[in-house]
Amino acid sequence: MTVSTLRSTPRPRLRGIAAGGLAALVSVALAACGGPSASDSPSEASNISAGSGTGTLKVWALDGQSAENTAIQKIVSDFESSHPDIKVKMQFLPADSFAKALQTSSPADLPDVLEVDGPQIANLAYGQKIAPLSDYVSAATVQNQTDAVKGQNTVDGKLYAVSMMNSGLAMWGNKKLLDKAGVTMPKSASEAWTADEFTEVLKKLSAVVPNGKPLGIAENNGLSSEYGIYGFSPVLWSAGTPMIANGKASGALDSDTAVDALKKFASWKQFTNPDGDGTAFQSGQVALNWMGNWMYPAYDKALGNDLVVGPLPNFGKGAKTGSGTIAWSLGGHTKNGAAAGKLLDFLMSDPVVSTYTAANGAPPATKTTAASSPLYGAGKPLAFLRDQLDAACPTEDRLTQQCVAVSRPVTAGYPVVTSSFGKALTAIWGGADVAASLQAAARAIDRDFADNNNYK
Protein backbone atom coordinates (compact mmCIF):
# COMPACT_ATOMS: atom_id res chain seq x y z
CA MET A 1 0.00 0.00 0.00
CA THR A 2 1.22 3.45 -0.92
CA VAL A 3 0.01 6.23 1.36
CA SER A 4 0.39 9.96 0.86
CA THR A 5 -1.08 12.77 2.93
CA LEU A 6 -1.68 16.43 2.23
CA ARG A 7 -1.33 17.64 5.80
CA SER A 8 -3.43 20.12 7.66
CA THR A 9 -4.84 19.84 11.16
CA PRO A 10 -6.53 16.40 11.15
CA ARG A 11 -10.31 16.53 11.45
CA PRO A 12 -12.44 13.73 12.88
CA ARG A 13 -14.44 12.21 10.06
CA LEU A 14 -17.58 11.97 12.14
CA ARG A 15 -17.30 15.35 13.78
CA GLY A 16 -16.49 16.85 10.41
CA ILE A 17 -19.79 15.76 8.99
CA ALA A 18 -22.12 16.37 11.79
CA ALA A 19 -20.46 19.16 13.70
CA GLY A 20 -19.76 21.48 10.85
CA GLY A 21 -16.05 20.91 10.17
CA LEU A 22 -15.57 18.86 7.03
CA ALA A 23 -19.11 18.95 5.74
CA ALA A 24 -19.45 22.67 6.15
CA LEU A 25 -16.31 23.23 4.12
CA VAL A 26 -17.37 20.81 1.41
CA SER A 27 -20.90 22.23 1.27
CA VAL A 28 -19.78 25.85 1.20
CA ALA A 29 -17.19 25.13 -1.45
CA LEU A 30 -19.63 23.30 -3.69
CA ALA A 31 -22.29 25.95 -3.12
CA ALA A 32 -19.79 28.64 -4.06
CA CYS A 33 -19.29 27.08 -7.45
CA GLY A 34 -23.05 26.71 -7.85
CA GLY A 35 -23.11 22.92 -8.19
CA PRO A 36 -23.10 21.34 -11.64
CA SER A 37 -23.95 23.51 -14.62
CA ALA A 38 -26.26 22.35 -17.38
CA SER A 39 -23.22 21.15 -19.32
CA ASP A 40 -22.35 18.82 -16.44
CA SER A 41 -25.67 16.99 -16.62
CA PRO A 42 -25.20 13.22 -16.53
CA SER A 43 -25.66 11.09 -19.59
CA GLU A 44 -27.53 7.82 -19.53
CA ALA A 45 -24.46 5.79 -20.56
CA SER A 46 -22.18 4.35 -17.91
CA ASN A 47 -18.67 5.76 -17.79
CA ILE A 48 -17.16 2.95 -15.73
CA SER A 49 -15.97 -0.53 -16.58
CA ALA A 50 -15.10 -3.62 -14.59
CA GLY A 51 -11.51 -4.08 -15.68
CA SER A 52 -9.59 -7.22 -14.83
CA GLY A 53 -10.31 -7.21 -11.10
CA THR A 54 -6.59 -6.78 -10.43
CA GLY A 55 -4.03 -3.98 -10.56
CA THR A 56 -3.66 -0.71 -8.68
CA LEU A 57 -6.53 1.20 -7.12
CA LYS A 58 -6.28 4.90 -6.50
CA VAL A 59 -8.16 5.84 -3.31
CA TRP A 60 -8.93 9.19 -1.71
CA ALA A 61 -9.66 9.21 2.01
CA LEU A 62 -10.45 12.16 4.24
CA ASP A 63 -7.78 13.10 6.75
CA GLY A 64 -9.44 12.50 10.11
CA GLN A 65 -8.54 11.66 13.66
CA SER A 66 -5.23 9.89 14.14
CA ALA A 67 -7.02 6.75 15.36
CA GLU A 68 -9.24 6.72 12.27
CA ASN A 69 -6.34 7.19 9.87
CA THR A 70 -4.37 4.45 11.59
CA ALA A 71 -7.37 2.14 11.43
CA ILE A 72 -7.91 2.79 7.72
CA GLN A 73 -4.24 2.22 6.91
CA LYS A 74 -4.29 -1.11 8.78
CA ILE A 75 -7.56 -2.11 7.09
CA VAL A 76 -6.20 -1.39 3.61
CA SER A 77 -2.94 -3.21 4.42
CA ASP A 78 -4.99 -6.24 5.45
CA PHE A 79 -6.96 -5.98 2.20
CA GLU A 80 -3.77 -6.06 0.16
CA SER A 81 -2.55 -9.09 2.11
CA SER A 82 -5.76 -10.98 1.32
CA HIS A 83 -5.86 -9.72 -2.29
CA PRO A 84 -2.22 -9.92 -3.43
CA ASP A 85 -3.13 -9.07 -7.04
CA ILE A 86 -4.56 -5.66 -6.00
CA LYS A 87 -2.46 -2.75 -4.76
CA VAL A 88 -3.87 0.38 -3.17
CA LYS A 89 -2.45 3.85 -3.67
CA MET A 90 -4.20 5.80 -0.93
CA GLN A 91 -4.08 9.54 -0.38
CA PHE A 92 -5.36 11.29 2.74
CA LEU A 93 -6.67 14.76 1.91
CA PRO A 94 -7.73 17.42 4.44
CA ALA A 95 -11.18 18.89 3.99
CA ASP A 96 -10.19 22.03 2.13
CA SER A 97 -7.97 20.11 -0.31
CA PHE A 98 -10.64 17.48 -0.79
CA ALA A 99 -13.30 20.07 -1.61
CA LYS A 100 -10.99 21.80 -4.06
CA ALA A 101 -10.09 18.51 -5.71
CA LEU A 102 -13.75 17.63 -6.23
CA GLN A 103 -14.43 21.05 -7.73
CA THR A 104 -11.47 21.29 -10.05
CA SER A 105 -10.99 17.70 -11.18
CA SER A 106 -12.85 16.39 -14.17
CA PRO A 107 -14.81 13.22 -13.40
CA ALA A 108 -12.27 11.21 -15.41
CA ASP A 109 -9.43 12.38 -13.17
CA LEU A 110 -11.01 11.30 -9.88
CA PRO A 111 -9.82 8.13 -8.11
CA ASP A 112 -11.28 4.66 -8.36
CA VAL A 113 -12.64 4.80 -4.79
CA LEU A 114 -13.28 7.85 -2.62
CA GLU A 115 -14.89 8.86 0.62
CA VAL A 116 -17.87 11.16 0.15
CA ASP A 117 -19.96 13.41 2.37
CA GLY A 118 -23.40 11.80 2.65
CA PRO A 119 -25.66 14.75 1.80
CA GLN A 120 -23.44 15.61 -1.20
CA ILE A 121 -23.95 12.22 -2.85
CA ALA A 122 -26.80 13.37 -5.11
CA ASN A 123 -24.78 16.41 -6.20
CA LEU A 124 -21.72 14.28 -6.98
CA ALA A 125 -23.83 11.72 -8.84
CA TYR A 126 -25.43 14.48 -10.92
CA GLY A 127 -21.97 15.69 -11.98
CA GLN A 128 -20.85 12.10 -12.85
CA LYS A 129 -18.16 12.27 -10.17
CA ILE A 130 -19.36 9.05 -8.55
CA ALA A 131 -21.07 6.04 -10.13
CA PRO A 132 -23.79 3.51 -9.20
CA LEU A 133 -22.09 0.57 -7.53
CA SER A 134 -24.61 -2.26 -7.15
CA ASP A 135 -23.05 -4.15 -10.08
CA TYR A 136 -19.64 -4.08 -8.39
CA VAL A 137 -20.32 -4.86 -4.73
CA SER A 138 -21.90 -8.06 -3.51
CA ALA A 139 -25.61 -8.43 -2.84
CA ALA A 140 -24.70 -9.37 0.73
CA THR A 141 -22.94 -6.03 1.22
CA VAL A 142 -25.97 -4.13 -0.04
CA GLN A 143 -28.43 -6.16 2.02
CA ASN A 144 -26.39 -5.63 5.18
CA GLN A 145 -26.52 -1.82 4.92
CA THR A 146 -29.00 -0.27 7.34
CA ASP A 147 -32.09 1.39 5.91
CA ALA A 148 -30.98 4.75 7.31
CA VAL A 149 -27.77 4.88 5.28
CA LYS A 150 -29.39 3.39 2.21
CA GLY A 151 -31.69 6.41 2.23
CA GLN A 152 -28.72 8.77 2.22
CA ASN A 153 -26.80 6.76 -0.37
CA THR A 154 -29.55 6.20 -2.94
CA VAL A 155 -30.30 8.66 -5.76
CA ASP A 156 -33.15 8.08 -8.22
CA GLY A 157 -33.34 4.46 -7.16
CA LYS A 158 -29.62 3.76 -7.67
CA LEU A 159 -27.14 3.06 -4.88
CA TYR A 160 -24.12 5.37 -5.15
CA ALA A 161 -22.35 4.66 -1.86
CA VAL A 162 -21.97 2.21 1.01
CA SER A 163 -21.32 3.19 4.60
CA MET A 164 -19.23 1.85 7.45
CA MET A 165 -20.79 4.22 9.98
CA ASN A 166 -23.72 6.53 10.64
CA SER A 167 -24.56 9.32 13.08
CA GLY A 168 -27.54 10.43 15.11
CA LEU A 169 -28.82 13.13 17.45
CA ALA A 170 -30.17 12.92 20.96
CA MET A 171 -30.98 14.98 24.01
CA TRP A 172 -28.24 14.40 26.56
CA GLY A 173 -29.01 15.02 30.20
CA ASN A 174 -27.23 15.54 33.51
CA LYS A 175 -29.20 13.27 35.86
CA LYS A 176 -28.04 15.09 38.98
CA LEU A 177 -29.49 18.37 37.71
CA LEU A 178 -32.61 16.71 36.29
CA ASP A 179 -33.32 15.03 39.63
CA LYS A 180 -32.83 18.32 41.43
CA ALA A 181 -35.55 19.87 39.25
CA GLY A 182 -37.84 16.84 39.44
CA VAL A 183 -37.43 16.06 35.73
CA THR A 184 -37.18 12.55 34.24
CA MET A 185 -35.62 12.00 30.81
CA PRO A 186 -37.88 10.14 28.33
CA LYS A 187 -36.42 6.76 27.40
CA SER A 188 -37.80 6.31 23.88
CA ALA A 189 -38.93 8.37 20.91
CA SER A 190 -42.53 7.38 21.62
CA GLU A 191 -42.23 8.96 25.08
CA ALA A 192 -40.59 12.21 23.89
CA TRP A 193 -41.62 15.49 25.48
CA THR A 194 -43.97 17.53 23.33
CA ALA A 195 -42.67 20.97 22.42
CA ASP A 196 -44.96 22.55 25.04
CA GLU A 197 -43.85 20.04 27.68
CA PHE A 198 -40.25 20.79 26.82
CA THR A 199 -40.86 24.48 27.50
CA GLU A 200 -42.12 23.59 30.99
CA VAL A 201 -39.09 21.31 31.52
CA LEU A 202 -36.77 24.20 30.66
CA LYS A 203 -38.58 26.45 33.11
CA LYS A 204 -38.06 23.93 35.89
CA LEU A 205 -34.41 23.39 35.01
CA SER A 206 -33.70 27.12 34.82
CA ALA A 207 -33.99 27.18 38.60
CA VAL A 208 -31.19 24.65 39.17
CA VAL A 209 -28.41 25.87 36.85
CA PRO A 210 -26.05 28.75 37.69
CA ASN A 211 -27.20 31.24 35.03
CA GLY A 212 -30.81 30.15 34.56
CA LYS A 213 -30.05 28.82 31.05
CA PRO A 214 -30.29 25.02 31.20
CA LEU A 215 -30.16 24.12 27.47
CA GLY A 216 -27.23 23.75 25.10
CA ILE A 217 -27.67 23.41 21.33
CA ALA A 218 -24.01 23.57 20.21
CA GLU A 219 -24.17 27.15 18.98
CA ASN A 220 -20.38 27.02 18.88
CA ASN A 221 -20.68 24.84 15.77
CA GLY A 222 -22.41 27.66 13.90
CA LEU A 223 -26.07 27.52 12.92
CA SER A 224 -25.20 28.57 9.37
CA SER A 225 -22.76 25.67 9.01
CA GLU A 226 -23.59 22.12 7.99
CA TYR A 227 -24.42 21.46 11.63
CA GLY A 228 -27.36 23.86 11.31
CA ILE A 229 -29.26 21.73 8.82
CA TYR A 230 -28.12 18.46 10.37
CA GLY A 231 -29.00 19.44 13.91
CA PHE A 232 -32.26 21.30 13.38
CA SER A 233 -34.01 20.02 10.27
CA PRO A 234 -35.50 17.42 12.68
CA VAL A 235 -37.59 20.29 14.08
CA LEU A 236 -39.40 20.51 10.73
CA TRP A 237 -39.61 16.75 10.21
CA SER A 238 -41.03 16.29 13.70
CA ALA A 239 -43.68 18.88 12.88
CA GLY A 240 -44.57 16.82 9.81
CA THR A 241 -43.10 18.86 6.96
CA PRO A 242 -40.17 18.10 4.65
CA MET A 243 -37.80 20.82 3.52
CA ILE A 244 -38.32 19.95 -0.16
CA ALA A 245 -41.58 18.51 -1.53
CA ASN A 246 -42.20 17.64 -5.17
CA GLY A 247 -39.00 19.38 -6.18
CA LYS A 248 -39.84 22.68 -4.48
CA ALA A 249 -39.04 24.36 -1.18
CA SER A 250 -41.98 26.77 -1.43
CA GLY A 251 -44.94 25.26 0.36
CA ALA A 252 -42.71 22.96 2.41
CA LEU A 253 -39.80 24.84 3.98
CA ASP A 254 -41.92 27.99 4.37
CA SER A 255 -45.23 26.26 5.20
CA ASP A 256 -47.31 27.35 8.19
CA THR A 257 -46.26 24.11 9.88
CA ALA A 258 -42.58 24.94 9.45
CA VAL A 259 -43.07 28.51 10.61
CA ASP A 260 -44.90 27.44 13.78
CA ALA A 261 -42.27 24.80 14.59
CA LEU A 262 -39.35 27.18 14.23
CA LYS A 263 -41.16 29.87 16.22
CA LYS A 264 -41.43 27.40 19.09
CA PHE A 265 -37.79 26.43 18.69
CA ALA A 266 -36.69 30.08 18.68
CA SER A 267 -38.69 30.71 21.86
CA TRP A 268 -36.21 28.48 23.70
CA LYS A 269 -33.34 30.91 23.13
CA GLN A 270 -34.15 32.53 26.48
CA PHE A 271 -33.25 29.22 28.13
CA THR A 272 -30.17 28.50 25.98
CA ASN A 273 -26.56 28.86 27.09
CA PRO A 274 -24.49 30.22 24.15
CA ASP A 275 -21.76 27.72 25.12
CA GLY A 276 -18.97 29.42 23.21
CA ASP A 277 -16.37 26.72 23.82
CA GLY A 278 -18.64 23.66 23.69
CA THR A 279 -18.01 22.58 27.29
CA ALA A 280 -21.12 23.87 29.11
CA PHE A 281 -22.67 20.41 29.41
CA GLN A 282 -19.50 18.68 30.56
CA SER A 283 -18.92 21.33 33.23
CA GLY A 284 -22.46 21.20 34.63
CA GLN A 285 -23.52 24.64 33.37
CA VAL A 286 -26.44 23.19 31.40
CA ALA A 287 -28.71 20.29 32.27
CA LEU A 288 -29.69 19.29 28.72
CA ASN A 289 -27.67 19.29 25.50
CA TRP A 290 -29.03 18.87 21.94
CA MET A 291 -26.11 17.05 20.29
CA GLY A 292 -24.91 14.04 18.30
CA ASN A 293 -23.35 10.72 19.19
CA TRP A 294 -19.79 11.85 18.50
CA MET A 295 -19.69 13.75 21.81
CA TYR A 296 -20.46 10.67 23.89
CA PRO A 297 -16.84 9.96 24.93
CA ALA A 298 -16.41 13.48 26.32
CA TYR A 299 -19.80 13.40 28.03
CA ASP A 300 -19.23 9.97 29.52
CA LYS A 301 -15.83 11.00 30.86
CA ALA A 302 -17.24 14.16 32.45
CA LEU A 303 -20.53 12.85 33.87
CA GLY A 304 -20.13 9.10 34.25
CA ASN A 305 -23.26 7.59 35.80
CA ASP A 306 -25.01 10.97 35.73
CA LEU A 307 -25.15 10.90 31.92
CA VAL A 308 -28.60 10.06 30.53
CA VAL A 309 -29.84 10.15 26.95
CA GLY A 310 -33.24 10.54 25.32
CA PRO A 311 -35.07 11.82 22.23
CA LEU A 312 -35.38 15.34 20.86
CA PRO A 313 -38.76 17.03 21.48
CA ASN A 314 -41.84 15.99 19.54
CA PHE A 315 -43.27 18.90 17.54
CA GLY A 316 -46.47 17.00 16.76
CA LYS A 317 -45.62 14.19 14.33
CA GLY A 318 -43.17 12.13 16.35
CA ALA A 319 -39.63 12.78 17.57
CA LYS A 320 -37.04 12.76 14.79
CA THR A 321 -33.26 12.69 14.46
CA GLY A 322 -30.84 13.54 11.71
CA SER A 323 -28.95 10.68 10.08
CA GLY A 324 -26.01 10.36 7.71
CA THR A 325 -22.29 10.90 7.44
CA ILE A 326 -19.24 9.89 5.40
CA ALA A 327 -19.63 6.99 2.95
CA TRP A 328 -17.57 5.27 0.23
CA SER A 329 -18.21 5.52 -3.51
CA LEU A 330 -16.81 4.48 -6.88
CA GLY A 331 -15.19 7.19 -8.96
CA GLY A 332 -17.48 8.14 -11.82
CA HIS A 333 -15.04 7.03 -14.52
CA THR A 334 -13.15 4.17 -12.87
CA LYS A 335 -11.90 1.46 -15.21
CA ASN A 336 -11.21 -0.83 -12.25
CA GLY A 337 -14.78 -1.39 -11.06
CA ALA A 338 -14.33 -5.06 -10.18
CA ALA A 339 -11.25 -4.47 -8.04
CA ALA A 340 -12.84 -1.38 -6.48
CA GLY A 341 -15.92 -3.43 -5.62
CA LYS A 342 -13.73 -5.96 -3.83
CA LEU A 343 -12.26 -3.18 -1.72
CA LEU A 344 -15.72 -1.83 -0.87
CA ASP A 345 -16.91 -5.33 0.09
CA PHE A 346 -13.87 -5.66 2.35
CA LEU A 347 -14.50 -2.25 3.95
CA MET A 348 -18.10 -3.25 4.74
CA SER A 349 -17.22 -6.61 6.32
CA ASP A 350 -18.00 -7.19 10.00
CA PRO A 351 -14.39 -7.25 11.30
CA VAL A 352 -13.49 -4.08 9.41
CA VAL A 353 -16.60 -2.11 10.41
CA SER A 354 -16.10 -3.23 14.02
CA THR A 355 -12.48 -2.07 13.98
CA TYR A 356 -13.27 1.25 12.38
CA THR A 357 -16.24 2.18 14.56
CA ALA A 358 -14.32 1.12 17.65
CA ALA A 359 -11.70 3.71 16.65
CA ASN A 360 -14.18 6.60 16.36
CA GLY A 361 -17.20 5.53 18.43
CA ALA A 362 -19.68 5.97 15.55
CA PRO A 363 -22.82 3.84 15.09
CA PRO A 364 -22.04 0.96 12.72
CA ALA A 365 -23.95 1.26 9.43
CA THR A 366 -24.14 -2.47 8.80
CA LYS A 367 -26.93 -4.47 10.42
CA THR A 368 -24.77 -7.31 11.72
CA THR A 369 -22.09 -5.11 13.26
CA ALA A 370 -24.62 -2.75 14.83
CA ALA A 371 -26.31 -5.68 16.54
CA SER A 372 -23.05 -6.79 18.18
CA SER A 373 -21.60 -3.34 18.89
CA PRO A 374 -20.26 -2.88 22.44
CA LEU A 375 -21.68 0.66 22.40
CA TYR A 376 -24.84 0.36 20.28
CA GLY A 377 -25.93 -3.26 20.72
CA ALA A 378 -28.96 -4.23 22.79
CA GLY A 379 -28.53 -3.22 26.42
CA LYS A 380 -25.37 -1.22 25.69
CA PRO A 381 -24.82 2.46 26.62
CA LEU A 382 -25.95 3.90 23.27
CA ALA A 383 -28.59 1.32 22.33
CA PHE A 384 -31.13 4.16 22.35
CA LEU A 385 -29.37 5.87 19.44
CA ARG A 386 -29.29 2.65 17.44
CA ASP A 387 -33.03 2.17 18.09
CA GLN A 388 -33.64 5.61 16.59
CA LEU A 389 -31.53 4.83 13.52
CA ASP A 390 -33.26 1.48 13.07
CA ALA A 391 -36.60 3.32 12.94
CA ALA A 392 -35.59 4.95 9.67
CA CYS A 393 -38.00 6.93 7.49
CA PRO A 394 -35.32 7.09 5.87
CA THR A 395 -35.86 10.14 3.62
CA GLU A 396 -37.95 13.23 4.19
CA ASP A 397 -40.47 12.34 1.48
CA ARG A 398 -41.47 9.33 3.59
CA LEU A 399 -42.16 10.93 6.97
CA THR A 400 -44.54 9.11 9.32
CA GLN A 401 -45.46 9.46 12.99
CA GLN A 402 -43.55 6.29 13.87
CA CYS A 403 -40.26 6.64 11.99
CA VAL A 404 -37.42 8.58 13.59
CA ALA A 405 -34.18 8.78 11.55
CA VAL A 406 -34.22 11.01 8.46
CA SER A 407 -31.52 11.84 5.92
CA ARG A 408 -30.94 15.42 4.86
CA PRO A 409 -32.66 16.25 1.53
CA VAL A 410 -31.43 13.92 -1.22
CA THR A 411 -31.07 16.34 -4.11
CA ALA A 412 -28.33 17.49 -6.45
CA GLY A 413 -29.24 20.98 -5.32
CA TYR A 414 -28.26 20.21 -1.74
CA PRO A 415 -25.51 22.86 -1.52
CA VAL A 416 -28.04 25.68 -1.96
CA VAL A 417 -30.50 23.93 0.38
CA THR A 418 -28.02 23.78 3.24
CA SER A 419 -26.67 27.29 2.71
CA SER A 420 -30.15 28.82 2.43
CA PHE A 421 -31.52 26.99 5.45
CA GLY A 422 -28.44 27.87 7.50
CA LYS A 423 -28.85 31.54 6.66
CA ALA A 424 -32.53 31.46 7.63
CA LEU A 425 -31.90 29.56 10.86
CA THR A 426 -29.20 31.99 11.93
CA ALA A 427 -31.49 34.93 11.25
CA ILE A 428 -34.40 33.33 13.12
CA TRP A 429 -32.25 32.53 16.14
CA GLY A 430 -31.10 36.15 16.06
CA GLY A 431 -34.69 37.40 16.28
CA ALA A 432 -35.68 37.84 12.61
CA ASP A 433 -39.22 37.14 11.45
CA VAL A 434 -39.61 33.39 11.02
CA ALA A 435 -42.02 33.43 8.07
CA ALA A 436 -40.03 36.01 6.11
CA SER A 437 -36.75 34.19 6.75
CA LEU A 438 -38.13 30.85 5.57
CA GLN A 439 -39.81 32.41 2.54
CA ALA A 440 -36.50 33.96 1.49
CA ALA A 441 -34.76 30.61 1.88
CA ALA A 442 -37.45 28.81 -0.13
CA ARG A 443 -37.24 31.38 -2.94
CA ALA A 444 -33.45 31.05 -3.13
CA ILE A 445 -33.68 27.26 -3.33
CA ASP A 446 -36.43 27.24 -5.95
CA ARG A 447 -34.60 29.84 -8.03
CA ASP A 448 -31.47 27.66 -8.05
CA PHE A 449 -33.50 24.58 -8.96
CA ALA A 450 -35.20 26.44 -11.80
CA ASP A 451 -31.86 27.73 -13.09
CA ASN A 452 -30.62 24.14 -13.25
CA ASN A 453 -33.71 22.53 -14.81
CA ASN A 454 -34.50 20.98 -11.41
CA TYR A 455 -31.25 19.03 -11.75
CA LYS A 456 -32.81 16.57 -14.17
Automatic annotation (TrEMBL):
InterPro entries referenced in this protein's UniProt entry, alphabetically: Bact_solute-bd_prot1, SBP
Pfam families the UniProt entry points to: SBP_bac_1 (PF01547)
PROSITE patterns attached to this UniProt entry: PROKAR_LIPOPROTEIN
Keyword Ribonucleoprotein attributed: no
Stretch forming the signal peptide: 1-31
Annotated keywords: Cell membrane, Lipoprotein, Membrane, Palmitate, Signal, Sugar transport, Transport
Superkingdom per UniProt: Bacteria
Name assigned to this protein: Multiple sugar transport system substrate-binding protein
Keyword Cell cycle set for record: no
